[in-house]
Design goal:
CATH topology of the largest domain: Glutamine Phosphoribosylpyrophosphate, subunit 1, domain 1
Number of strands: 27
Oligomer: single chain
Helix content: 25-40%
Shape: globular
CATH superfamily of the largest domain: Aminohydrolase, N-terminal nucleophile (Ntn) domain
Bound molecules: fructose -6-phosphate
Structural class: alpha/beta
Number of domains: 3
Distance between the termini: 11 Å
Strand content: 15-25%
CATH architecture of the largest domain: 4-Layer Sandwich
Strand order of the largest sheet: 3-2-4-1-10-9-11-15
């Protein structure tokens, strides 16, 4: 949600800043801007310079091409996902103070900005944008007495809310200041150059040495070094980490879209997880940070998550309850803390998040922790805020997910929940060892089955394209594939903008069946399972009302053809693992329909990859 990059060093800043923004574009893409302090001979006074514009980063590139910025090796840039104020040029970042000397880029929300605006206006400051960000540059201007760091400390101590900031000033052409509370910010350490960024991909071309700035930390970056401070202005020692992912992990590698690339990565993601987490039939959950006694004493589980991760949590509910007998509640994280959840020391909270920065999920975790629950996160991003606030973490290690629509993170979350359930079940001895072993065996086989499905993706593409004219889709599933229906609908609507609803198939007759006619497409998730016959009955009800059916079924099920207009087959596996398999055709249906409709698959309108506001 908004992307920041800042540079100080010995190279030209503008290409690095714009290139970095491109890699952060998944975080927001309604407007963008670059601000620099031009290079100058010693003693010559220079003015900060800004280019900003509405729309995607391509617009900013075009603007800089027609109106080039002066040479500079100090600058900040920003790609925006609007919260306060329309996505236009004036509201785009960076924002300057009255004198135009201090430039600020910001990710987050300043909750007390109205109060601060009034106070600043009384003092004569001219605020020109509708954003909650601009006041920060004026607060710094107000506090500035020749020491930029001291002025920034004074200014940010007045802010309430969440922020990651990049700050430069033409009075200090040798310094870039960064600060964070709540919103992610990293520092990249180079040789004779240093960087700030919202996320690692923005600077991966230049360095792999990273400092993950913590909440209430500030950093002063110079060409030849970085110092970190707390909000009292006291210098503190921090350790740099070396990130392991490769540059090509954040490139499309010949695929038309990141989403398609990430769909294709799913066999390797699972293969990797199985290799590191399974030793024979033993599940290894390094990072969980709960001993067997603690795990055995769990008598209630809450999964909290948003969007796709919430759907993974719903699948987890079925698996954990089936294998352990422990009741599981799944909450949309944005709702969790408003309903006074009954949580105690024997409750295990599983917080699921790809980014680990989702504000609602973080808020749910904080609520649960105040009530004494243990929190284990299932997370993809190493060192993220969620991980730092959890008692234990099970990393999915799916690699960077750039496509805004989550794919590989989803299947990795489900697989991790299965592994956790299998581990807990081995302690609880709730199901027979034979049953556990059979599920483990099938799980190990899933990567091969994924490759089989992907080999037939041309058939899925053909079916998707043929049905792309439908103005409304229903997705139906039962039991453990009810969450699959929700996820299939979410994938389609977010990238194709076609209204799509996911329903428990049995609920259809309680209302949604009124929608069915020859103009509706219905995706029926009907692999061989304990509820297969019931799904067939639902499909007959749809056929009787002329609805067009795309069925997702198990290979060898020829009979289903008589109930469906199109059939997409997945290989057989244990019923508990079917959500892992059906996810693939559901993702591909959404992808090919969106491509057919000419939609921007990787950057759908109004969305951002990491939602760091509530
Ligand atoms: C949908 C999607 C979102 C995210 C949700 C949570 O494709 O990507 O629904 O799943 O915003 O994000 P994380 O997992 O980062 O907490």
């Amino acid at each position: 949600m908004c992307g920041i990059i800042g540079y100080i060093g010995n190279r030209q800043a503008v290409p690095i800043l714009v290139d970095g923004l491109k890699k952060l574009e998944y975080r927001g893409y309604d407007s963008s801007g670059v601000g620099i302090i031009p290079s100058s001979d010693e003693g010559v006074v220079v003015k900060a310079d800004i280019r900003k514009t509405h729309g995607k980063i391509q617009n900013l590139q075009d603007l800089i091409r027609t109106k080039p910025l002066p040479q500079s090796s100090l600058g900040v840039s920003h790609t925006r996902w609007a919260t306060h104020g329309a996505p236009n040029r004036v509201n785009a970042h960076p924002h300057a103070d009255c004198s135009g000397r201090i430039l600020v880029v910001h990710n987050g929300i300043i909750e007390n900005y109205e109060q601060l605006t009034q106070a600043l206006c009384k003092k004569g400051h001219k605020i020109i944008s509708e954003t909650d960000t601009e006041i920060i540059s004026h607060l710094i201007e107000d506090a500035y007495r020749g020491n930029l760091l001291a002025a920034v400390v004074k200014a940010i101590r007045q802010l309430k809310g969440a922020f990651a900031l990049g700050i430069i000033s033409s009075d200090h052409p040798d310094m870039l200041i960064a600060a964070r509370v709540g919103s992610p910010l990293i520092i990249g350490l180079g040789k004779g150059e240093n960087f700030i960024a919202s996320d690692v991909p923005a600077i991966l071309d230049y360095t792999k040495r990273i400092i993950y700035l913590k909440d209430r930390q500030l950093a002063v970056l110079k060409e030849d070094g970085v110092r970190v401070y707390n909000f009292e202005g006291k210098s503190i020692r921090v350790k740099a980490d070396k990130v392991s992912f490769k540059v090509d992990a954040v490139q499309k590698q010949g695929f038309a879209h990141f989403m398609l690339k990430e769909i294709h990565e799913q066999p390797e993601v699972l293969q990797r997880m199985i290799k590191t987490r399974l030793k024979g039939n033993k599940v290894i959950l390094d990072g969980l940070n709960l001993n067997e006694r603690q795990l055995k004493s769990v008598n209630k589980v809450f999964a909290v998550a948003c969007g796709t991760a919430y759907h993974a949590g719903l699948v987890g509910k079925y698996v954990i309850e089936k294998l352990t007998g422990i009741p599981v509640s799944v909450d949309a994280a944005s709702e969790f803390r408003y309903r006074n959840p009954i949580v105690d020391k024997k409750t295990l909270i599983i917080a699921i998040s790809q980014s680990g920065e989702t504000a609602d999920t973080l808020a749910a975790v904080r609520e649960a922790k105040t009530k004494g629950a243990k929190v284990v996160s299932i997370c993809n991003v190493v060192g993220s805020s969620l991980v730092r606030e959890s008692d234990g973490v099970l990393y999915t290690h799916a690699g960077p997910e750039i496509g805004v629509a989550s794919t590989k993170a989803y299947i990795a979350q489900i697989a991790m929940l299965c592994l956790l359930a299998l581990k807990m079940s081995s302690l609880k001895k709730f199901v027979k060892e034979k049953t556990r072993k059979k599920i483990l065996k099938d799980l190990k086989h899933i990567p091969t089955l994924y490759r089989d499905i992907l080999r037939n993706k041309a058939d899925i593409a053909r079916i998707a394209k043929k049905n792309s004219h439908f103005g409304c889709f229903l997705f139906l599933g039962r039991n453990i594939n009810f969450p699959s229906a929700l996820e299939g609908a979410l994938k389609l609507k977010e990238i194709s903008y076609i209204p799509a609803e996911g329903y428990a198939a049995g609920e259809m007759k309680h209302g949604p069946i009124a929608l069915i006619d020859e103009y509706r497409a219905v995706v029926c998730i009907a692999p061989r399972s304990s509820v297969y016959e019931k799904m067939i009955s639902n499909m007959q009800e749809i056929r009787a009302r002329k609805g067009k059916i795309i069925a997702i079924a198990t290979q060898g099920d020829e009979a289903i053809k008589t109930h469906a207009n199109h059939v997409i087959y997945v290989p057989p596996t244990d019923e508990l693992l079917t959500p892992l398999l059906v996810a693939l055709p559901l993702q591909l249906i959404a992808y090919y329909i969106a491509v057919q409709l000419g939609c921007d698959v990787d950057q759908p309108r109004n969305l951002a990859k990491s939602v760091t506001v509530e």
